[in-house]
Design goal:
By secondary structure, this protein is α/β, with parallel strands linked by helices. The chain is built from ten helices and twelve strands. It starts with 7 loop residues before the first helix and ends with a strand.
């Protein structure tokens, strides 16, 4: 899978785009009313329990507005936070802190939200089953969202369409399953092959072929258990399909190696954070 790289350049460029979005074309006309010389110290606090993430993005937001602003991190990315936790201290020009405030908080709340929701799934799934994200991410934010998943204890599925073969129902609808898998095996060139099945009959039709992972999609717990029993000696196993915090524990109990959950990226609630002067 493509590696996620949170380089200094990537963080800077990403935050710069966000600031441009917020400040174009006339800057922060409200903060311009604040006295330019006033120096303040601000607390970055959490209003809820969760997993914090995105501190380097927040720090960069303030630095791009004013390099003299000090951003002192009190909780590292991936740390547990509680309501009232001091996450960071920010000291500098009041006007410039106010200009960068919302962009910094947006990165923090979004990344922390994904990390927090991922962690909730990870706890319920237990130590033997991995929680994976999917490609159901906001366009142009995939790197950030997949980084957030890892902060929450999850793992990353393929990053893009060229990372591995994933033969799904829509591919199968236009061709024969066994022939598609056979062609992928022939053409794989070192890439992994995952094959989605939605019935035990589909699974049995491809048993014996040399691919990597069986993806059980929207199958009952009973069928999933049977599918894992049939295939786990030969393939990695994965489950997907509308898996929630209410169902993830029972899905994990079937013995699947991993569970892919789209909602940890596309439906995670933001963590509530605030700046307090």
């Amino acid at each position: 899978m493509s590696k996620i790289k949170l380089s200094k350049e990537f963080i800077r460029n990403t935050v710069k785009l966000a600031l441009n979005e917020d400040l174009y074309p006339s800057g922060d006309i409200t903060s311009s009313l604040v006295k330019n010389y006033k120096i303040i110290t601000v607390k970055l606090l959490s209003n809820q329990n969760g997993i914090i993430g995105g501190l380097l993005f927040a720090k960069q937001a303030f630095a791009l507005i004013d390099s003299k602003i000090k951003f002192i991190i009190k909780k590292k990315d991936g740390s547990k936070i509680k309501k009232g936790s001091l996450v960071a201290l920010i000291k500098g020009n009041a006007k410039n802190i106010l200009i960068a405030e919302r962009v910094a908080l947006n990165f923090l709340s979004h990344i922390s939200g994904i990390a927090t929701k991922t962690n909730a799934f990870v706890k319920l799934a237990g130590n033997k089953t991995k929680i994976c994200c999917t490609r159901k991410t906001i366009p142009n934010l995939r790197v950030i969202q997949k980084y957030a998943v890892k902060l929450g204890g999850g793992t990353n599925h393929r990053f893009n369409l060229s990372d591995e073969y994933l033969i799904k129902d829509n591919h199968i609808a236009s061709s024969d399953l066994r022939s598609l898998v056979t062609k992928a095996i022939k053409d794989k060139k070192g890439r992994k092959i995952t094959v989605e099945v939605d019935s035990l009959n589909q699974l049995k039709s491809i048993m014996g072929l040399k691919f990597n992972t069986v993806l059980f999609d929207n199958m009952s717990i009973k069928s999933l258990k049977e599918g894992v029993k049939i295939s786990n000696k030969y393939y990695e196993t994965e489950a997907s399909g509308n898996i929630s915090l209410k169902t993830v524990k029972s899905v994990a109990s079937t013995g699947v190696n991993r569970i892919s959950v789209g909602s940890i990226t596309h439906s995670a609630e933001a963590v509530d954070l605030k700046l307090e002067i």
